Amino acid sequence: MQKPKISVIVRTRNEETWVGPCLDMVFRQDYPDFEVIIVDNESTDHTLEIVRRYPVKQVVKLSRYMPGLSLNQGIRASTGALIACLSSHCIPRQTDWLSKLAEAFDDPKVAGSYGRQLPLAFSGAVDKRDLLTVFGLDRRVQVKDYFFHNANSMLRRDLWEATPFDEEATNIEDRLWGKAMIDAGYTLVYEPEAAVYHHHGINQGDSDRGRAHGVSSLLDRLEAEIVADLPENMRPENCNVVAIAPVLGEPRELQGGDVFAEMLRQLTDCRYLRNVYTLAESDKARATADRLGARFLARPEELRSRDRSLGDILRYALHAIEAAGDYPDTILYVNYLCPFRPPGLLDELVTELHYKGLDTVFPGYIDYNDHWVNAAAERFERISESPKPGPERPRLYRSLYGLGCATRASVVRRGNLIGDKVGIVPIAEHIFTLRLTDERPQPLAPDEAERESLLGWTSQMFLREFRP
Description:
Blueprint: E1 6-12, H1 19-26, E2 34-40, H2 47-51, E3 58-61, H3 67-76, E4 82-87, E5 90-92, H4 97-103, E6 110-118, H5 125-134, E7 140-142, E8 152-156, H6 157-162, H7 173-183, E9 187-198, H8 209-222, H9 224-227, E10 241-246, E11 253-254, E12 257-258, H10 259-267, E13 273-280, H11 283-291, E14 295-298, H12 310-323, E15 330-333, H13 345-355, E16 360-367, E17 371-376, E18 379-384, E19 396-399, E20 405-408, H14 409-413, E21 422-427, H15 446-466
């Protein structure tokens, strides 16, 4: 028996972080006949550029957003006998998600089905509590209960044509429609096997955060496997993580050693990296990159000035990478002038970024000392004072971006290195803070030569000991 065609309606607005993983799983579905319609509400970020990488049937553009209107417009552009509604920040868990939702319609009394919604590893306490308490493991046929949720649902087109979604309702358009179906004598089906990940939950926050945290902590223990989970295509080992290593001028050497080459060798030990790119102007840097398997990007003249921001440089590199058909999810910035890295640091940065849902993660040197700022001419002010001794003082973290800084591609695309949600990996050993500061060295004075020689000896010793 031929299965009915399904139209998947995906609503988007500035969802560049989520729409790629969402559509990736939608187009992996095992259902034999479906189409995808995007309804976009004036996205101003990279959402539509990402959408164009997938074989969607149509993008419907909407300027006045109401949830019911958005779905109705998408359905009007579709042709399926069954309609699946999916929020673009919801990611199907399995490749049989569509099939499981559709199974309910073997019964002609069923008007709609909806699936389970699961938290992610980094969902907040309120959202985690709500999702795990509302969406359980038992399949239900609802005869009187009209709860329905369009973040992950399916309905019959013929019933929608008779009763479309309310286009003026600011929310719960799904439950209004569900009540109309129940009142008309139809049933609704909750199918837990048609699960999606939904990071912000069904209420998008709650004022009772203290109580929610307590409930969430209990659920963490009861549902440990679920609450620590991520969609397969959002796990770092399955994401496109690329390193970008800019070089200004000729690569610096230290005591005859090739510091740039040493850094590229360190990057080969990072388990999550798909590709390493260097943005440079030097033939020597190009030759080193070619020899060690890194991809070379020519650094344009306008980016060879020291007053250009790192954000500008990384944004240019990302645009060049995407123009060549490589679409990173995560950018790992590294500076070859920071030669000493703790073993496993780069993998830790990427893992923290993905499993904690952060925008940026970088190493930070822990400092318990007092700090002063030159507030005005001949006047210094203490900016970190604590009456507690030593390690009991509040920690300050000195950023060490050059050791490695993992950042979402969406942040870099805006010309920034650091996003809003930040994580810091603590660094306690001072050796990892050392950096070569001059990329265009001048001839050394005698006392400078002595220091250079000492640093060279130190570098050789620590490279042997700390190289990952």
